[in-house]
## 1
Amino acid sequence: MRTAYLDTLYELARQDQRVYALISDNGAIVYDKYRRDLADQYLNLGISEANMLGMAAGMASCGKIPFSYTIGAFLAYRAFEFIRNDICLQKQNVKIVGTGAGQVYSALGPTHHSTEDLGGLRSLPDLTILCPASPLEVRKATVAAYEHEGPVYLRLGTNREPEIYKEDYAFEIGKGITVRDGKDVTLIGTGSIVGDILGVVEQLQRDGIHARVINIHTIKPIDKGIILRAIEETGKIITVEDHNIIGGLGSAVAEVIAESGKGVAFKRMGLQKFSNGYGDYVQVKEMNGIGIKQVYDEVKMIIK
């Protein structure tokens, strides 16, 4: 995902001198090509995330389009006040790019995990939140963020996520995508965990269970229509996210269900406390209840 983002940002900046890359002294090496060819559109602000976002807001007020990039946990938590007051309150055209979504920095522990970022940022007015599921979707989401006038939070994984799309497709902010159709149950995911969900669906298929998979790449504004159709057509919904179940995808879907007044069997899967354990990403997801086997078992339970 990171490479897809950087390649796309490079292309946008080559075409539009208003585009700037701002970083907070992390992963500078991955910007080598950008820095070499577009030095005048690159700023390393050091380990000062709040200052970086304050500067980005000022640049946006002068007509620039800054993409402010660092680890998502440090943006969403440490610099929340600046996102609220300098960017969202002023409706500045700043793109906030957080890498390391969920528990993907699995060996670094909960201080580096972005597992409450959606819950906090989703409450901010005028902030669009994009959470792409694959490298192709990162490219499309980055372009969409560039074209969108206003604050955007772009939530990325790292650099090892598999591609889930076999062919090109139309990406639209606020419109979810049915990745697999099915009539027995709907699994709704966001971010790279959609790839895990597709693996679960293959297992369910062998059991005679036909699961629908919906990728919600835009957490805010959320696609109410695709959720309401899933309620009507499958009657059972499970949300799966690498995030706390409070405030993120599960909460957003629950709000749609509650306001619809429709009855549906519903389960939120995600973290309910700070992340436990260390290891690789697959291991940490399993330790915290969102591994492939746990999702499979939950589907079997809701079907019963």
## 2
Amino acid sequence: MNKYIIIIAGEPYSVFLEILFKSIKLKKLNKPYILICSKKLLISQMKKLNYSFKINLVDKNKIKNLKLLKNHINLLDVKFSFKKTFDKITSKSSKYIENCFLEGLEIIKNNKANILINGPVSKKYFLKKKFLGITEYLANKSKKKGEEIMLIYNKNLSVSPITTHLPLQDVKKNLSTKKIIRNVLKINSFFKKKLKRKAKFVITGLNPHCETTKKFSEEEKIIIPAINKLKKKNININGPFSADTLFLKKNIKKFNVVIGMYHDQVLTPIKTLYEFNAINITLGLPFLRMTPDHGPNNSMLGKNKSNPTSLIETFKFLSQIREN
């Protein structure tokens, strides 16, 4: 029996519900799912954005015997008080967002779901500097701290930074040969087992042109030893290459996964190449976590003009992965 998909709406004052409505209307979500958010908020946004979907309320006390209905939004209602349907993001939403995540993780814990999709949240207000990002937040809540792997997936080219939401000054001390090997092996396994695809890796250097005038070279001491060990494990990987030319059209045809050393080194080019046609996947957790590759976009709230492509791609991806 297929398990359910958990969809956490995230920041209440974001465009996520709008793009979810558009995706549902286009019939892009074809698997059983539970949306976790405020019923009051859901109805208000449907009304304001001129959408009408039937709602089936899910009783969390009967989670082991769930009955989900087709052509309905199967909703687990989390109470949230708001004065305006469309408002600015503040810390007042933090407790509500936390409760939504805890409800979703509880369903996963009860072995009724193995995929979690979340809408964007504000790092400034929700995470409050306690976590670098939702990737790290979920790893902590799942007792997998330090094992999380960020993969920005597109069917033609995917990227994965070894360090995630770190300030640049902290990147160097958080790189290791062991971490590179672990991440590449997990991504390789994901491609093979879940996607039935062969991963062709290429890895960047850390320094400009993979060179440094310092005594310690990250390329020589950390990255190249990792590449050599991975090749001995029959992993298709090459590098290190300088990131400034790696993403040229003639180069990206040769591989399908770029391993970078830090966040913007690989996320900036893939977003430039594919815009919203990519999804953010977190590996290394007890479940598969995905999220559209964009933020809350509060400035577009209520305008009904947001692009649902990234969420649609997320739903398309669900039909590509193997259940087990």
